[in-house]
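Internal tracking record. Fields below are filled automatically when a chain is submitted to the structure queue. Please do not edit lines marked as system-generated. If the sequence contains nonstandard residues, flag them in the REMARKS field before resubmitting.
Queue: standard
Priority: normal
Entity type: single polypeptide chain
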Amino acid sequence: MKQMIWLLAGLAVMATASSAVAREPGQVVMPAAPANRALFEKWGFAEAVIDGDRIYLSGVVADLRGTETDPSAGFDRAFKTIAGILQRSGATWDDVVDMTTYHTDLPSQLDAFVAVKRNYVREPFPAWTAIDIDRLVPDRGLVEIKVVARRPPDATSPK
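SYSTEM-GENERATED OUTPUT FOLLOWS
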């Protein structure tokens, strides 16, 4: 009888562990547009993953397009993209608790980046780490922005 109880307990633990995965399909946020989604599927990553009360966003690259020379336009596009991903995940910029940015030329980009960031990130500020790197994909990438947000308890399912 004792062996039977241990066997049943072991099976219950295994069943619970096997059904609990970190990336449930309903908790993975992918681009809605088929053209954008194709790249994410090809490279094997999601825009965001919701794990409990945390939302982990993949990095969003700010880049120069066409004949642009002002990095502020690219920074603004990236912040708007992040706002959209956060919204589809049930959060806003006010829920961001941590931001890491990877800059291809940190000293020359910092002032313009901070000016754009102030349009989206308000007090109390999240933690922020800025790192200088050699390059990004795509080649005209300036900064990659990665955030972690707290998901409000009343948030709806990701869209």
